[in-house]
Design goal:
elongated; 3-stranded parallel sheet; single chain; alpha/beta; 149 residues; 7 strands
């Protein structure tokens, strides 16, 4: 909008524009405003535990990404107004590492899609206790707590 207004003011300084010329300038301003809005269109990205990081675009519920690692890899490409949506009822393991926050008027948001319980982002990694032996220092667990003597 600022570009369009400055174009209009530069071309009108010291001249009187006829109605046809004003319509052209008005059309140019509207065209610039619409094109700048389209360039910054909001994009929704979808993540599902059933997704595929390699073959899916993440741009639809039918083609979601699968992991937080993929979201983190793409985080630098998110733009103001974008949303990263996790499927309800799914559990995601690992860290979520946002790199940008957007702008004051168009933030990058993280939310949910679908029905059911809220998605869970679990910062831990799975831990197999069947290989646990001895005592876990600091946590008080002993091998005998898992049926072993």
């Amino acid at each position: 909008m600022v570009i369009a207004l400055s174009l209009l003011s530069v071309t009108t300084i010291g001249t009187t524009l006829n109605p046809i010329s004003m319509k052209k300038h008005y059309f140019l301003c509207v065209l610039l405003l619409v094109s700048s809005t389209l360039l910054q269109a909001q994009v929704n990205y979808y993540v599902s535990a059933d997704g595929n990081d390699d073959g899916n675009t993440g741009l639809s519920q039918q083609s979601p990404w699968k992991t937080l690692a993929k979201v983190n890899t793409m985080a630098a490409t998110f733009n103001p107004g974008d949303s990263i949506l996790f499927r309800r009822g799914d559990v995601f393991r690992g860290e979520l590492l946002p790199q940008k926050s957007g702008t004051a008027t168009a933030s990058i948001t993280y939310g949910a899609y679908g029905t059911g319980s809220r998605p869970i982002i679990n910062g831990s990694q799975p831990f197999r206790l069947e290989r646990f032996s001895g005592q876990c220092l600091g946590c008080g667990l002993r091998r005998s707590h898992y049926g072993h003597e």
